[in-house]
Design goal:
With 136 residues, the chain is mainly β. It is 0% helix and 54% strand. It has one domain (2-130): Immunoglobulin-like, CATH 2.60.40. The strands form four sheets. It has a five-stranded mixed β-sheet with strand order 4-12-11-6-9, with no helix packed on it. A three-stranded antiparallel β-sheet has the order 1-5-10, with no helix packed on it. A two-stranded antiparallel ribbon has the order 2-3.
Length: 136
């Protein structure tokens, strides 16, 4: 997983703009989470559920202040048996999730956590901090 200013998937590849940061703000800005999953052959030809949630430093979901709605997205993916890939070789699955400027407090630590089929996989999180506000 990688934080970026923007990301997209095309032709099975991730295209990343302004990637690799871990400090933003203090003002809200557009962000993206770029993910490259490696799917084992025995996991192909089935639907997988994913859930990406923003958590605070204590591992609790972050909520939009006005609506008390958690900052999270979810979806599904399904990968069939690819042609020309040798038997036993895992298959790459890239994802790019873009967000508008998020109304999160400045001067704090956060992490995006990716859950696949109800499990957090090793390395399926990426942390960042927001700079303190410049106003007193």
């Amino acid at each position: 997983m990688l934080l970026a200013d923007a990301a997209q998937v095309a032709d099975g590849k991730l295209f990343i703009l302004g990637g690799g940061w871990s400090l933003i703000g203090p003002d809200p800005m557009p962000t993206a989470v770029a993910v490259k999953l490696t799917v084992d052959r025995h996991e192909l030809d089935r639907t997988h559920h994913w859930h990406l949630v923003l958590e605070d430093a204590d591992g609790q979901p972050v909520y939009v202040t006005d609506t008390l709605q958690a900052i999270e997205v979810h979806g599904e993916f399904h990968i069939g048996q690819p042609e020309g890939v040798p038997e036993g070789v895992p298959v790459d699955f890239p994802m790019a999730i873009n967000f508008p400027p998020l109304p999160i407090p400045a001067g704090a630590r956060y992490q995006w956590r990716l859950i696949i089929n109800g499990d957090t996989l090793p390395g399926a999180n990426v942390a960042f901090s927001t700079r303190p506000s410049l106003t007193a």
